[in-house]
Amino acid sequence: MFATASCLRSASTAGTQAAERSSYAKCPPLSLYIHIPWCVKKCPYCDFNSHGLRAEMPMREYVAALLADLDGDLADFGDAIAGRDIVSVFFGGGTPSLFAPDAIAAILDGAAARVPFARDCEITLETNPGTVEHGRFDGYLKAGVNRISFGVQSFDDDKLRALGRIHSAAEAESAIKLARDAGYANINLDLMYALPRQTLDGSLADIEHAIALEPAHLSHYQLTLEPGTPFAKRPPPLPDHDAAWDMQEACQARLADAGYAQYEVSAYARPGQRCRHNLNYWELGDYLGIGAGAHGKLSTDAGDGLQVRRRWKVRSPVAFLQAAATPARIGGNEVVAAEQLPFEFMLNALRLNDGIAMDTFAARTGLAPAAVARELDAARGRGWLIVDPARLQPTPLGRRFLNDLIELFLPEPVHA
Q1: 265 shares its domain with 358
Q2: The last residue of a domain, from among 250, 280, 310
Q3: Where are the beta strands (DSSP E) in 364-416?
Q4: Which element (helix H / strand E) includes 91?
Q5: For 168-200, how does the pLDDT look when each residue is reduced to its tens digit (9 = 90+)?
Q6: What pTM, to 2 d.p., does this model score?
Q7: Higher confidence at residue 12 or residue 182?
Q8: Cα–Cα distance between 46 and 150 in angstroms, integer?
Q9: Cα dihedral 107/113/117/123 (nearest 10)
């Protein structure tokens, strides 16, 4: 268990409400991630903690387990969370849209009764176009979900079959229309490129199809072969690196022409429609993670400086259900070592096109800028970062060589 104090509150300031308010104002934003581990069928490229349905889904039992899990985290981290509002909620999976609206409502109502939600809290539900029915989006909206994210991946039926998706392009269009008719304006579409046998024209056709549907946000990312997946064991014929780069550049340019600004490696948005939940991840904010395999991160200060703590839950849905009200639900706890924090920060923050203030590095890691001075000099010397001591922002060249840029901040290996 972690015994924690307020994220940035020292013992000497804990006595008055005014001091508490001043201290909490320095805390990073706090989000909530809720993992729904089931899907109709696991896709061959997916390495997420998701499990194809083989029997009836224990929806009611899992809702109770999620809230019990949250109760346990609040008991352990209560002092670090007290006085803070949840600024965003994200239902990820798996396929959260397999859960009925009343189940989603029960989770949100239960969570909000335990931790206050901000008045403008962004609440996202990931949705598979093949699992939605008429009327469900009305129910999700009534439950409090105000952002829908569709896992479309492609509007080419041949590519969807190659990816093992359960929906067709027509079903994706229909689901998006149902969500819009229900009143959703904040809609995200997930699209992939560099798909099996995909051409540059094919990737652009997907983008044109998406633009025509006028979503507020697009997530556009390259298909990669993740270890342990069926695709990694039996790789499909994928475009080479140069062809994939051509697709990325061409699609990025087309999205810009259509009014979608790229603000992160794989994220594009209309003005004012950036995903707040993911931004909190990329800026090393705090988040609670509940559900099978969910991860959480909290900034705490027990009096000897800032600490970044991580916690994750057991991956197996069966094991999680059995242990949700006990410490056995926890798969692991750790305090991130100080020498690892620069890499953790840069791994996320340097994905942002606009970068991030150097002050945020100090606030989120507890480290002085001098801790990364050598690495920053090297990155700027190679033309990978803009020359501005107050800002961490990759140049266009730095975005092209982002992995190399981030690797500069890996901690030195420890030799025995």
Answers
A1: no
A2: 280
A3: 391-392
A4: strand 86-93
A5: 999 999 999 999 999 999 999 999 999 999 999
A6: 0.92
A7: 182
A8: 16
A9: 10
